[in-house]
Each structure stands twice: as C-alpha cells, then as structure tokens.
Amino acid sequence: MGEVSDTTGVTDAGGGVRLRPMTVEDLPAALDLEQALFPEDAWTEGMFRDELSHPSRHYVVAESGDRVVGYAGLRSVPPEGDVQTMAVARPLWGRGIGRALLTVLLDRAEREGVTHVFLEVRDDNPRAQKLYADFGFIRIGVRRGYYNGADAIVMRRTARPGQGSGEEGNP
Ligand SMILES: CC(C)(COP(=O)(O)OP(=O)(O)OC[C@H]1O[C@@H](n2cnc3c(N)ncnc32)[C@H](O)[C@@H]1OP(=O)(O)O)[C@@H](O)C(=O)NCCC(=O)NCCS
Description:
The chain is of the alpha+beta class. Helices cover 26% and strands 37% of the residues. The radius of gyration is 15 Å and the shape is globular. Residues 37, 86-88, 93-99, 121, 125, 127-128, 130-131, 134 line the site of coenzyme A.
C-alpha cells in the first residue's frame, strides 16, 4: 500500500494503480465490471446512483492509467458500518488491489468512529471470505437465500477500544 493524500483523496496502491473517490462518470465502467463479476446479482445504474447520492456512503475506484479496474463502497453510520460491495477486474486479481480498496474503506470507517463493520459475502466465494478474514472479519451468521443461488455469510469486524483498526483480530 502506498500513501494516502488527505488533500486529494488519492491513494497510490502500487503497480501503477491509484485509488480515488468514485463519481457518476465512473458508472459505465463500474457497471461493466459489475456485470462481469456478479452475473447473478449485478447492481443496476440506479442502485449505484442511489448509493453515491447518500452522504453516509463512501465509494472508491481503483484506476490503472485512465481505466477503472475496481471499486468498493462503505456505508458509514457510526458506530456501525457496512462494506457494501467490492470488485476488481478479473485479469488483475491477486495483485493486492482488493486489499488496497478494503484498507481505504476501513481507514475511512475508523476516522468516522465506526467500531463495527459488517458485510455479507456469498457462501460460494472463498476468495473474498479469505480476504475479509485476513482483515479481522469473523463469521457471525448466515442469511439463507440472500443471493440468487447462494446463502450469505454475515461477517463482522470489531475495532479494539482506542483503536479503529481491528486488523490484529477481534476482542
Ligand atoms: C474478492 C476480490 C475483490 C479480491 O480482489 P483482489 O485484487 O484479487 O485481492 P488481492 O489481490 O488484494 O488479494 C487479497 C486476498 O484475496 C485472496 N486471493 C487473491 N488471489 C487469490 C487466488 N488466486 N486464489 C485464492 N485466493 C486469492 C487471498 O486471500 C488474498 O490474500 P493474500 O494476497 O494474502 O493471499 C476479487 O477477487 C473480486 O473482484 N472477486 C469478484 C467479486 C467479489 O467476490 N467481490 C466481493 C463480494 S463480497
């Protein structure tokens, strides 16, 4: 992970990839990725626009050159937050972009005083589950039939007192 610039909101994620806040101009590219990566549960443009219009939502894109290659979103209503979505273009998987996106979201949550971050992940998606577990998320439940053709694993990450980041684990 590179450094975050407080003035621009741009983060150098390494390997020529930068993270920056998502805007509506990014939606065509984000929708293409959405269709490719979530064929059964793809969000619509309206859903993205609705998310971007909420002050409690914080969306970032990963950009390589001028191409959007990933995105992620946070719902932040302290003391709780949710990872709303996360996606990285398939050819670039395994290069740390997912970690960089999640780090930016969790840093934002920490700055806003979020102590409990929740998310749902398909039970047939071990790659994402492993990523979340690496960041200290633990499995707290199952939502049957939450997705088309899959249950959702509900995960939670709890910050330690005096420390927004719970990367070392949970209390
Ligand atoms: C989940 C996803 C966002 C991860 O993005 P990524 O850029 O590949 O993630 P990273 O390169 O930062 O890797 C993070 C972790 O993912 C897992 N991972 C990465 N490549 C992997 C591979 N080839 N096989 C298995 N797990 C892998 C590992 O746990 C890895 O941690 P490690 O580097 O310590 O081994 C991406 O795979 C994706 O977009 N998947 C489809 C959409 C999705 O499932 N989104 C999450 C919905 S809840």
